[in-house]
């Protein structure tokens, strides 16, 4: 989906396909040994290694590809508005795997693909309306794995997030590594991600020099943004900024423009996806009268990252590095 990834990320994330790495074979799919994992706070036992996994959305799909598990996939669902897939490190995975739907997964997709595992998330495929839930799939004899970033946290029926976003990423990579018998590959990927992020952190602004940042996803009447449990929270903080919506105990949610004005972010990050382009979103922010005195708008400090950078995915570390490069250009004292 996008072309601006760090070379180191490309190499490590594509462990299964080259860069001089030793390929680790996944566990024999005929193995009868079960694996018990903790997923969204629940202990879940999988009786066998899945051979026909179906995934929903780009970040989830690329977690499988980054671990070299495209041979365990029966297909994926993903809108075609999520970017150009030709430039990503895992483009071979896309070429080897069937694109089942350009909408969200359905029971029909799953059954037609003869799936033996559905890897999705709440609001990333799983949804109560329409009845596409892990419980509904279990009744069909199909197990599920829920993206950790999307786990319901009990604060409301819809609020999501149970741990810091990067911890969620590492938890899912670790769990997938165990489930598919590629623990070493998962551990190497996590170690490299942590190394990349530590390097950015070491160069990032400190203390009062850290600029305040607002994540703008979409919405004109009211903005859709990121709270402290979605990936942008740590993408912003590790890059050297402060998420102005850190106190929002949710992953993704709608707030009021008056809150944005009151918190006066010094930088706005646009989530680039959908029918409205990043440039159109930027034009709206710059022309929207209530925002005219917001620091980021006055100084035109607006930068965009791709959707796949800003949901839980193996692109998160490179997004941190690129945002870190930008935040270091914001003058102290602003």
UniProtKB/TrEMBL annotation:
PROSITE patterns hit by this protein: FE_B12_PBP, PROKAR_LIPOPROTEIN
Signal peptide: 1-21
Name used for this protein in its record: ABC transporter substrate-binding protein
Key words, A-Z: Signal
Coiled coil: none
Domain of life: Bacteria
UniProt similarity note: Belongs to the bacterial solute-binding protein 8 family.
UniProt keyword annotation of Zinc-finger present: no
Fe/B12 periplasmic-binding domain segment(s): 52-334
